[in-house]
């Protein structure tokens, strides 16, 4: 199976630049919609099952020197969100999956695979934020709340009536896109790194409007098929058993 989400027509993708991705000096896409709307974004850290869900600084995972050396010295490449990305053919999807797998191996990252039921982006975010993919409905609610409360910051990136878009992405099983990823970054005040299968772009950096934590959310994106949650390989044994998972701290000096 190449992803339970693959039959859905509306997955959003970031249009990659024409630059070639050198695996040892790869390109990174940096996406932020800017200061549209100029509104304050309030982060809400509420775990449906715990009163102290958001990892503190004591839980930070210090990246291995080799991973940091390869992952951060990347040249930013501007990206523009596009709606209604085409679902790749089976052959294209297979090649894309191989490319993504190669990149994950290069950076010594391991996927915690989540269910491909249309909720994969929200499941992957839940796994990163709350140590389990099971709170995906709550994560979707938080993102929808962010989109509703700050519509001026996002409606310019939605090529349909905004209320129609909100109704659409509010539904269980509806695919997330890069607008919902931006809203997630803004809601939780964290940077989101998305390791992609794009030919020209190894990973995308999504910046929050206001950074409230130096923690980083790490996702993989098998375009236009599936999102997963990713972690350093030596953190992999904790994927299903740890009560609290270590996070990657964001290196402020990488630009």
From TrEMBL:
The keyword Metal-binding does not apply. PROSITE patterns: OTU. It catalyses: Thiol-dependent hydrolysis of ester, thioester, amide, peptide and isopeptide bonds formed by the C-terminal Gly of ubiquitin (a 76-residue protein attached to proteins as an intracellular targeting signal). Residues 109-233 form the OTU domain. One of its GO terms (molecular function) is cysteine-type deubiquitinase activity. InterPro entries: OTU_dom, Papain-like_cys_pep_sf, Peptidase_C85-like. Belongs to the peptidase C85 family. This is ubiquitinyl hydrolase 1. It comes from Hordeum vulgare subsp. vulgare.
């Amino acid at each position: 199976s190449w992803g339970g989400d693959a039959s859905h027509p509306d997955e959003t993708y970031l249009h990659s630049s024409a630059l070639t991705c050198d695996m040892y000096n790869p390109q990174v896409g940096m996406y932020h919609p800017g200061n549209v709307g100029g509104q304050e974004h309030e982060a809400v850290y509420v775990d449906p099952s715990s009163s102290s869900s958001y990892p503190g600084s004591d839980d930070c995972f210090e990246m291995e020197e080799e991973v940091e050396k390869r992952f951060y010295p990347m040249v930013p490449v501007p990206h523009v969100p596009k709606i209604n990305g085409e679902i790749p053919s089976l052959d294209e999807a297979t090649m894309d999956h191989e490319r993504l797998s190669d990149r994950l191996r290069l950076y010594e990252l391991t996927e915690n695979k989540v269910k491909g039921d249309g909720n994969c982006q929200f499941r992957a975010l839940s796994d990163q934020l709350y140590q389990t993919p099971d709170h995906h409905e709550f994560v979707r609610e938080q993102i929808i709340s962010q989109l509703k409360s700050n519509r001026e910051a996002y409606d310019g990136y939605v090529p349909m009536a905004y209320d129609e878009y909100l109704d659409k992405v509010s539904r269980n099983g509806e695919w997330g896109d890069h607008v919902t990823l931006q809203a997630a970054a803004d809601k939780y005040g964290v940077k989101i790194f998305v390791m992609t299968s794009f030919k020209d772009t190894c990973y995308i950096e999504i910046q929050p409007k206001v950074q409230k934590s130096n923690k980083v959310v790490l996702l993989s994106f098998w375009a236009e098929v599936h999102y997963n949650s990713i972690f350093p390989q030596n953190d992999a044994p904790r994927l299903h058993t740890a009560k609290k998972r270590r996070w990657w701290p964001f290196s402020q000096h990488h630009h």
